[in-house]
């Protein structure tokens, strides 16, 4: 009986090739499932904050952003898109880069400092008001936070606004929420809810 070594080696090679392909496929699928997944809180939070170092008070609309996986979400950024505003308001941009709480304010008019999100959630600032400035609120972009009340392109005159807030990261999946924001006549009446 003659053994066909070419056939045997061909079958062994094919089986090894299929096994290697399956291993890579399984590794890719499990890696995809472990990628970071950002999730914003169910509804926006509206709170008054007093900063201890300056004794300054502001009211904020924020979301808490969590990473639902074990792998750190890298270079997370957030953007607010204006989808509805009062008819008389025409000065607004379409999109604004938002500020992550506890990141120093900058004087950038575009872009924001990205953050990494691991096991601990991060607070995302969306809009704010000031006790010294009634009759408006502001999108929480870094420049507006560093120069409160002085950044006209981020000023929201009193009225109802629709915002779409998106968070994303370089190595995973993001999240999107839509909210109705009420820019007040009196600073303490700032309000927001998901719609």
Descriptors:
7-stranded antiparallel beta sheet; alpha+beta; Immunoglobulin-like; 2 domains; 195 residues; elongated
Short description:
The chain is an alpha+beta fold. Helix content is 18%, strand content 43%. It has two domains: 1-34; 36-194, Immunoglobulin-like (Sandwich).
List the helices and strands and how they pair.
Elements (H helix, E strand, L loop, with lengths): L4 H30 L3 E3 L4 E7 L4 E12 L5 E12 L10 E3 L1 E2 L14 E3 L4 E9 L2 E7 L2 H5 L8 E2 L2 E10 L6 E9 L7 E4 L1
Antiparallel strand pairs: 1-3, 2-3, 3-8, 4-5, 4-7, 4-11, 6-8, 8-9, 9-10, 11-12, 12-13
Description:
- This protein has 195 residues and is of the alpha+beta class.
- It folds into two domains: 1-34; 36-194, Immunoglobulin-like (Sandwich).
- It is built from two helices and 13 strands, in the order H-E-E-E-E-E-E-E-E-E-H-E-E-E-E.
- It has helices at residues 5-34, 142-146; strands at 38-40, 45-51, 56-67, 73-84, 95-97, 99-100, 115-117, 122-130, 133-139, 155-156, 159-168, 175-183, 191-194.
- Strands 1, 2, 3, 6, 8, 9 and 10 form a seven-stranded antiparallel beta sheet that branches. Strands 4, 5, 7, 11, 12 and 13 form a six-stranded antiparallel beta sheet that branches.
- Strand 2 and strand 3 form a beta hairpin.
- It starts with a helix and ends with a strand.
- The mean pLDDT is 87.
């Amino acid at each position: 009986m003659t053994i066909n070594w070419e056939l045997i080696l061909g079958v062994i090679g094919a089986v090894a090739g299929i096994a290697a392909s399956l291993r890579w496929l399984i590794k890719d699928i499990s890696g995809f499932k472990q990628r970071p997944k950002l999730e914003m809180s169910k509804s926006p939070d509206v709170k008054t904050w007093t900063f201890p170092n300056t004794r300054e008070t502001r009211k904020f609309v924020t979301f808490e952003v969590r990473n639902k996986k074990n792998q750190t979400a890298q270079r997370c950024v957030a953007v607010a898109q204006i989808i509805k505003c009062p008819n008389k308001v025409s000065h607004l941009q379409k999109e604004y880069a938002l500020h992550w709480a506890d990141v120093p304010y900058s004087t950038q008019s575009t872009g924001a400092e990205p953050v990494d999100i691991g096991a601990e959630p991060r607070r995302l600032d969306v809009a704010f008001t000031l006790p010294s400035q009634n009759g408006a609120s502001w999108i929480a972009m870094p420049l507006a936070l560093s120069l409160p009340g002085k950044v006209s392109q981020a000023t929201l005159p009193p009225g109802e606004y629709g915002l779409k807030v998106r968070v994303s990261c370089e190595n995973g999946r993001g999240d999107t929420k839509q909210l109705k924001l009420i820019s007040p006549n009196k600073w303490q009446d700032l309000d927001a809810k998901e719609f």
